[in-house]
Each structure stands twice: as C-alpha cells, then as structure tokens.
Amino acid sequence: MYKVSIGTREGDVKDPGLANAGEDLIDWAAREMPVLLQIRERFERERPLADLRVSACLHVTSETANLMIALKAGGADVALCASNPLSTNDSVAAALATAHDIRTYAIKGEDNDTYYSHIGAVLDHRPNFTMDDGADLVTMLHRGRTEGLDTVLGGTEETTTGVIRLKAMAAQGVLRYPIIAINEAETKHMFDNRYGTGQSTIDGILRATNVLLAGKTFVIAGYGWCGRGLASRAKGHGADVVVTEVDPVKALEAAMDGFRVLPMEKAAEEGDVFVTVTGDVNVLDRQHFERMKDGAILANSGHFNSEINLKGLDVLATEVRQVRPMVQQYRLGDGRRLNVLGEGRLINLAAAEGHPAAVMDMSFANQALCLEYMAKHHRDLERLVHDVPVEIDREVARLKLRAMRVQIDTLTEEQVRYLNSWEEGT
C-alpha cells in the first residue's frame, strides 16, 4: 500500500504505478457518460462549486472517477474514499490520486480498520458538502466526528440503504443538515436500480462461479426496483425465478409479472441460486440454511453484508474454505455445501465492475446537479431528507435523450390549456 502526496494533496492507494491503466478505464467509461460530460463542460465554464470542499464516500470505480473529475471542473476541492471494502478499482484510485490530483483513500480488500480510517481521512477535509453511498460517512460525522458538522451545509445520498438510515435519523431529530436522496430520482431508481443492478448482479455471479443459469431455480429476496431488474434478467437467462417478499403489493406485482412468489422457508428448499436485494438484515438466516440444497449459491446485491446471516452460517459450518477467488464454501454437519459469493458483500462490485457506465451517467448527473442545487439553496432546506427536485430529474432525462438522439413530442398551446382547465368534459 502507498501513501501518496502530490503537491498539497494526500491519499492512500494500493499502487500509484497503476495510474496509466486507471486513466484508460476512466476514459473508456467517459465515452458512455455523455450527460455527465455535458454537465462537466458547463461546470468548467461557470464554476458553480468554486471554493467548496466536498467529501465523498462512494464506490471507487471508473464511473465515479468521472463524477469526481466533473466536480473538480466545477471548482470543488474533492476528497474521496470507498463506500465498501471490496468495491474499489485500484487502478482508478491510483489515477485519481496522481493524474487528477484528487485526494483518494481506497484500496480493494481493505480491512475494517482501514475502511473507517479512510472515512475519517475524508472528514479531516472539513467538508462543506458530503456525498454518501450507504450513509457510513454521515453516520461517522454524527457519532464520532461531530466537530466537523460546523462546516457542513448539505449532502447527497446515492442508495436505498442510505436513504433508509438517513430518514431514521431525520425522524429522530438528529440529522444536522439537509440531504438530497439521489436514490429517489426517477432517472436513478428506474434505470440505475433496475437496469444497472439487474445486469451487474448477474455479471458478478457469472464471473464468480461460471455457472449456467438456464434451468436453475433463481430466488430473489425483494421485489423493489433492484429485484424487478434482477428478476427480468435472470428470466432472460432461462432461470426459473422465484420472488420472496414481505410487502403484499410488491408480491402481487411479482406474481402478475409472471414470477412464482413463495415464503423464503419454502423457496430455500427449491433454490439453486439466492440473491438478496432488500437492504434489511438476516434475510437469509439459519432456518433457511438448514433447508437449502447441497451446492446452493448465496449472493447479496444490497449495500451492506448484513442480508446473509454469515455468523449464523459459521455456527452451522464444520469447515469453511475458499474454492474460487470470490467463493467461500461452507460445509455443514450433514455434508451439504453452501457457497457464499464475495463475502456476502455487493456481488456486482466484489466480483464484477458494478453498473454499466451508461446507467451511472444518469445517477451521477443527478449527483452533480443536486450538489450545484444544494450549494445555491441549502439555506432554504430543512434538516430532512429531500427528494431530487423534479426539474433536475427532467433535465437529466432530457440530456440523456439528446445524447441518444431520441426526439419526443411537445404539447401544443391548446393541449396545455386543456390540461390546465376544468370546464371541458364529455
């Protein structure tokens, strides 16, 4: 591992010598991120983030790198750390730290102490704005680093899991500054969560195991936007898809979409592959492990490694061994073997490269525009979790359509009058 110091910048990356390879990955992703590129070009001209310090805790990928570069182009002084110990691309981290002079603290596979020390390092940056993916940075700031709250004006949050945590903080009256929930934007959850998670989760499972999905029973815990996308793509691979849910409306939707819906205890007996996408804890638990087939594959695509009860599985296991780079095999007392992928962490980033750049283009465009909005309007916002302003959501969609060369209709004056009137009927 290398501490790097470039000019006045500091960081902690695996190897600065990887920077050239990282630059290639960043450039490759940029080709698929035309919306963020348009925003970056405007930011370079207008400098809406001039003299603002931003501390970001995100997955350190080539797509994230393009967001950081856009924020810097807008005048921001940026510090970045990883939001998951297994989600960093070391070459991208090296490129950010050396070629782009951005404080970067991220090493793939970092231990728990290093992970939290890196979060502490970006908080040493004394941010005016935070940018979080899972709310670990915000939580540390509110628990152990409260002296840093004096300079914070606002923040953004990328994920479902993080939004849940932050809304709990707001409900308890402990959230000290306003945060915009990027995850709630339609151009985020409808595309990033559905198309991105759906494709990248399958990608991670296949890279980790090289199994054939056709003909297998594929159990998905949770039918939110991520679960919907995953179910669609697993079905496209020829899998028999089973959905488990606690929400009756989502369960009904899954059934109407043509998927079998079962309680997890019954699904546990049938499944060949299990994936959790709920944001909750112990979704796969001891009573489920006890019912699973020999050779079952267990993966998680929720933000934290809490959805599979690994401690409970440890208790049941007589032996644990690494059988592939991202596969830990737990042998139970009766001889059955259960295979956990990526230590129960985000499989799409642990074993693959995360969401495609074309999807992250919209999510990170929302991040950039919401940070600009927050810089202008933070004084007007309560200390709550706020939705992405509708005008930003629509602007991201408009820019994406323009980049895709897709044209749409506009309302005529007559149609506008009709939609804003009440006099006319049948």
Question: How would you describe this structure to a colleague?
Answer:
- This protein has helices at residues 19-30, 34-46, 62-73, 90-98, 112-123, 136-143, 160-171, 186-209, 225-236, 248-256, 264-270, 286-289, 310-316, 347-350, 357-377, 390-403, 413-419; strands at residues 2-6, 9-13, 53-58, 77-82, 103-105, 129-132, 154-157, 179-181, 217-221, 240-244, 260-261, 273-276, 297-300, 317-324, 327-332, 337-341, 385-387.
- The protein has 426 residues and is α/β, with parallel strands linked by helices.
- The strands form three sheets. The protein has an eight-stranded mixed β-sheet, with helices on both faces. Strands 5-4-3-6-7-8-17 form a seven-stranded parallel β-sheet, with helices on both faces.
- Helix 3 (62-73) runs parallel beside helix 15.
- The termini are far apart.
Largest sheet: 8 strands, mixed
Distance between the termini: 73 Å
- What strand order characterises the main sheet? 11-10-9-12-13-16-15-14
Q: Which ranges are low-confidence, i.e. pLDDT below 50, for 5 or more consecutive residues?
A: none
Number of separate strands: 17
Structural class based on helices, strands and sheet pairing: alpha/beta
Q: Let me know the average pLDDT.
A: 95
Counted by DSSP, the helix tally is: 17
Helix content: 40-55%
Shape: globular
Beta-strand residue percentage: 15-25%
